[in-house]
UniProtKB/TrEMBL annotation:
Annotated source species: Brevundimonas intermedia
Protein name (record): Efflux RND transporter periplasmic adaptor subunit
Keywords: Transport
UniProt feature, compositional bias: Low complexity: 36-45
Domain CzcB-like C-terminal circularly permuted SH3-like intervals: 327-387
Domain named CusB-like barrel-sandwich hybrid: residues: 107-243
Length: 399
């Protein structure tokens, strides 16, 4: 009886054997709740995958969407130019023009008095500086001007001495004060005559006592032609030589008459020439200066660029009707991503994509209607490299 009870107790408190059909086949669970080895491995794999997804999500949170990591050294190596947001906006007008010598870049050097050409000191193609002699003349008229100047100077000296003598005698009570005043008036008249004589002599080329004088170049440049030869006679006003400064050139555009009221000195132009594109600044606007058409003439000079030779044809684009509160960026800064216009704004350690609403385009710049406040610095030249880098990163993430 005791033995049966003991066996019953053992059966109740012993190990119960169950046959369970699992995914991996039949296995025997001896009263344990532990999963089989295959299922445990699967569970560990799922847990590891979940951890990887979690870590990947954390990595994505660290880099915001549209961010391109780029150091300053990498940006410089890629020739990536960062520019500020400009102010303006308006309509673009295309102009045709040419490169012309400035008004002070060409000189026809003439003789101020008639005379015989004694020597010619330059030849065509020779470079000259300001004040350099071009030819030497001998002139009877010039000799007369010099003699008149010397005589007037002598008369002035005589009048000065007479005034000083009368002034001393008047202090001693020898002569009347009226004589002193009269001698002073004669001194002033003599000094005025001497100044006039010296001015005539200087205008004649400051000849010496023999009437020999030099004709000098008023500008620096290159002698383009010589009109006289040794031994010849040149009349007063006759051209001795022509000098041109090839570096003194400017842009001249013919514009519609209505632009005279819209364009001001200081306005910017985008110019296209055989030598390339460059920016220019308006230096003057002359309404109706066109000889035949009455068109407005706009003169401009380049900013940081060398103009092609005089006579070269150029075209210009000028923006008129500018809005004071408008924002603009270089047109090359605008990129298209997923069908939307964007710019890349410089941020610490890289660039951040920013969607924008664009407006009119003129003079190589594009108006920004919404998306910027004007304080940003955006990628300009080679901004497409950031777009390519962003697309590359998205492709790698998708893979």
């Amino acid at each position: 009886m005791r033995k049966r009870t003991s066996n019953k107790t053992l059966l109740i408190g012993g190990v119960a054997a169950l046959v369970i059909l699992g995914a991996g086949g039949l296995y025997l669970a001896m009263g344990r709740s532990d999963p089989p080895a295959a299922e445990g491995a699967a569970a560990e794999g799922e847990a590891s995958h979940a951890e990887e997804e979690g870590g990947h999500a954390e990595g994505e949170a660290e880099a915001p969407e549209g961010f391109v990591a780029l150091s300053a050294a990498q940006a410089q190596a890629a020739n990536l130019v960062v520019v500020g947001v400009g102010r303006g906006g308006g309509a673009e007008t295309r102009l045709s023009g040419r490169v012309e010598p400035m008004i002070d870049a060409r000189a026809a050097v003439a003789a101020s008095v008639g005379g015989r050409v004694e020597r010619v000191l330059v030849a065509p193609g020779q470079s000259v500086r300001i004040g350099q002699p071009l030819a030497s003349l001998v002139s009877g008229d010039a000799a007369t001007f010099r003699a008149d100047a010397d005589a007037a100077a002598a008369q002035s000296e005589v009048a000065r001495q007479a005034y000083q003598r009368n002034s001393n005698l008047a202090d001693q009570g020898v002569v009347a004060r009226q004589e002193v005043e009269a001698s002073r008036a004669q001194l002033l008249s003599a000094e005025a005559a001497a100044r006039a004589a010296r001015a005539r002599s200087s205008a004649a080329g400051s000849p010496n006592a023999a009437g020999r004088l030099s004709v000098n170049s008023p500008i620096a440049g290159v002698v383009t032609s010589v009109q006289v030869g040794p031994g010849g006679f040149v009349p007063q006003g006759g051209v001795i030589a022509e000098v041109t400064n090839p570096a003194r050139v400017e842009l001249v555009f013919n514009a519609p008459p209505h632009l005279a009221a819209l364009v001001r000195a200081g306005s910017t132009l985008r110019v296209s020439s055989p030598a390339g594109d460059f920016d220019a600044v308006v230096t003057g606007v002359a309404a109706g200066a066109g000889a035949e058409s009455g068109a407005t003439v706009i003169r401009a000079r380049p900013t940081g660029a060398t103009l092609p030779p005089a006579g070269s044809a150029v075209t210009g684009a000028i923006v008129t009707g500018e809005a004071a509160g408008g924002l603009t960026v270089p047109t090359e800064a605008i990129q298209t991503v997923d069908g939307a216009s964007v710019v890349f704004i410089q941020v610490p350690n890289g660039f951040q994509l920013r969607p924008v609403l664009v407006g009119r385009q003129a003079g190589g710049r594009t108006e920004i209607l919404r998306g910027l406040d004007g304080s940003e610095r955006v990628a300009g030249t080679n901004a497409f490299l950031l777009k390519a880098e962003l697309a590359k990163g998205e492709a790698e993430h998708g893979h």
